[in-house]
Amino acid sequence: MRLDSPTSARWARHTLTVVALASLTACANFSGIFSQAKPIAPQAVGLSQEAIPAASPALDAQWWKTFGDSQLNTLVDQALANNPSLRVAQARLQRVQAVIDSADSATLPQVNASLDATQQKYTKNGMVPAPLAGSIRDSGTLQASASWELDLFGKNRAALDAAIGQSRAAQADAQAARMVLASNVARNYFQWVRIQGQLDVAQRTLAQRQQAQQLVQDRVKAGLDTALEQQQSDSALPDARYQIEALKEQEALLVNALTALTSQPNGALALVKPAPAAINTVANSQVEVTSIPLDLLGRRADVSAARWRVEAATHDVSNAKAQFYPNINLTAFAGFSSIGLDRLLDTGSDQWGVGPAIRLPIFEGGRLRANLKGKTADLDAAIETYNGLVIDAVRDVADQLTSTQALRRQQTEQRAAQSSAESAYAIAVQRYEAGLGNYLNVLNAETAVLTQRKLGVDLAARALDTQVQLIRALGGGYTEPDTSAAATVAAAK
């Protein structure tokens, strides 16, 4: 090819143009803008291989069924099927999926078609020559156009990756919402069970105090007690009835809470008191962990969602940086255009064009740098949010493990104390039946038994509640979705 040929000259001009445009990129740059935050290392919160020899088995995703209470199973199933909060989370997920579709479309060629028809009067006193000058003519254009952004610097790909990251985060948020809802139902139900046990003890306490009052009245009539003892026994009854009424209020409030959680009509929830031993005190041997699992951060949906938001924010920063580079499009059009609609499709009315279109940011008044600063700040906020959730997750598990172990020791001591009180009560009954003691001694011994029974009910309920909390802290059976390339492509469609 000769250097002085028209083709060589044209390519030389194009090359010089590209070089000139590329040299202008220095006018818009992102130097000095970078993220300050760093994701926390697992070792920093104690999740090191040396500290923890192995990960414990995964939990059952339907962990509530392992408690063996069909009534609880029904409540949780109703809550997961009907609760508006879960529907909101699902709607957010669908909204993010729409963003993925929009971002994906930007990576593909765009094709459009248009038809324009116009009736126009041409001026006599302008530059329009005869015979058009002063005439009224119809004109039309029938045209197809196509464009394809080459995305050489990854702007559109980064936007798509950011949208996929937000989708993954929304999926994890939906799972976290399910976990929170199921745990709230279980905790409220176990509190309702606790109230039933407390009501049994309170009813027996009232009956005992009524018996004591009758005995004191008999002793006063016999001249063995005074009005002081009578007044003391009388004052104990209102207190016992107050305790019963307070427990009934708590019972009603818990039923209201369960009604709301399961989205049932008010007054439609009819709970049946379970048998004392009907609920498994140990829901699953898999929960019997003694240390924080190594894979804890992958078990928790909230931490997973925060990590995906860090990924999405990272891609948003990449997208913001790519906007500093040239935007190169290939454009083409082909169609027909004529004055006079009857000639629109005639030979000679055809037109076409093809070529590149380059847009280069030079002076943006700081807009691009401001956008990058904002996206970088968003990334820092996402990283710090993730770090905070990691710290809270480890502390959460540590707290529940501490409470679980402490409750076992407390229950051991309480059972010993109750056994001693039951023995003392049995001895008091035997002495009374043998005529060696009075019935007040029996009632006093039974008071100690009732106190221990009440404490036992509380500790049993706390054990169940702590177990639910431990299951929640361990992720409740959450597993992260497949993040392979195939799954990513499927999520983008």
UniProtKB/TrEMBL annotation:
Pfam family, one: OEP
Keywords noted in UniProt: Lipoprotein, Membrane, Palmitate, Signal, Transmembrane, Transmembrane beta strand
SUPFAM superfamilies in the cross-refs: Outer membrane efflux proteins (OEP)
Subcellular locations according to the entry: Cell membrane; Membrane
Keyword Membrane: yes
Signal is among the record's keywords: yes
InterPro entries: MdtP/NodT-like, OMP_efflux
Membrane topology: Lipid-anchor
Principal subcellular localisation of the protein: membrane
PANTHER family: MULTIDRUG RESISTANCE OUTER MEMBRANE PROTEIN MDTP-RELATED, OUTER MEMBRANE CATION EFFLUX PROTEIN
Family, as annotated: Belongs to the outer membrane factor (OMF) (TC 1.B.17) family.
Protein name, entry field: NodT family efflux transporter outer membrane factor (OMF) lipoprotein
